[in-house]
Amino acid sequence: MRVAMIGTGYVGLVSGACFADFGHEVTCVDKDKGKIAVLAKGEVPIYEPGLTDLVAANARAGRLKFTTDLSGAVAGADAVFIAVGTPSRRGDGHADLSYVFDATREIAAALKGFTVVITKSTVPVGTGDEVECIIRETHAEAECAVVSNPEFLREGAAIQDFKHPDRIVVGTEDARAREVMTEIYRPLYLNRSPILFTGRRTAELIKYAANAFLATKITFINEIADLAEKVGADVQEVARGIGLDNRIGSKFLHAGPGFGGSCFPKDSVALIKTGQDYEAPLRIVEAVVAVNDARKRAMARKVANALGGELRGLTVAVLGLTFKPNTDDMRDSPSIPLVTALQDLGAKVRAFDPVGMEQAKPLMAGVTFCKDAYSCAEGASALVIVTEWEQFRVLDFKRLKTIMARSVLVDLRNIYSPEEIARHGFDYEGIGRVRSS
Length: 437
Description:
The chain has helices at residues 10-22, 33-40, 51-60, 70-75, 98-110, 127-138, 158-163, 175-184, 200-231, 235-243, 264-277, 283-306, 335-344, 357-360, 373-377, 397-403, 418-423, and strands at residues 2-6, 25-29, 64-67, 79-82, 115-119, 144-148, 168-171, 195-198, 315-319, 348-352, 368-369, 382-385, 408-411, 427-429. By secondary structure, the protein is of the alpha/beta class. The strands form 3 sheets. It has a 6-stranded parallel sheet, sandwiched between helices. Strands 11-10-9-12-13-14 form a 6-stranded parallel sheet.
């Protein structure tokens, strides 16, 4: 199949590279000439494990190309995927669909022969209807079908998720579009990946409902963690105890400093706005967003409590800045409000992240960025683990004890046990656990 992928951001680039690896002929399109030039040289502007090699291999094989020429790519395509950004709109929290609609107008003008136009961007219910209207207004004779095909990729594991999905959701009632989508995803059949065909609006809602539900699980266990600290229970064991119930499941029951990233925060807010527009308020999701926003900044008080309640003049070392490991994505990362709150309380902040520091620097004024975990910890009164990078799971606490001003670990991801840290002579403050000292 000949595929045009409009947008070379995270979703577009991963999806385009994986489709090419399936054997399809893929042309990725972007207006950013600089980004296209970089990609054409075999360089990848985002950090995602395995993506650079995947892009390079398929580019060498001639199955993956990059261009700024949208009309040329669309004219020769059997399927055109829209994978542009849908950030929160400034002022009201609705999804900003301007990039989707702009791309649609350009696509419509270039369509030749029957083409399936697929929204892979995360878009509110009804967006596909508007995309179809725009195509008809722009090119009344266009022979096409508009389909919703939301993505379910985890940053840091996107290639695995794309090639071994739990499900592939395709929203269309057009028979020819079903045939094209079935052919595009045919290489996954050996993995028994189920294609769920639904109505277009249903597919659009599935994406938002999935993200809101996962955000709810995270927020639920975070609130249980707060209660566990008060009553002397261990949230890790609570999560295991409820997660073994297969009606609940263990995934996304890891207490921490709150969720961030490019999807959960903006998609939860966008779903709330959709509910308001249709007079079907989503009170649970509203609570999830409010609790999560407050939680991120509240983590600074946990650090202060671990140091006796006073941070003024003290140095705090922060390990991990990205919202999760194996990505350089800083969007809505819990580290941002945490660092700001630490500074507001008078602390001097030092920080280290294995891959995210260049992205973090414009967002964190006054922070001293360090070359590794140990230079970060030097002279610090507390070491705070914010992102659970593998490098932070095997810290040398004997070394840390000799270079830190005080032996205090604030483990916001619970990657260490309180007993283990106590044996090294450190005070330990985790999430939803009894404090050790």
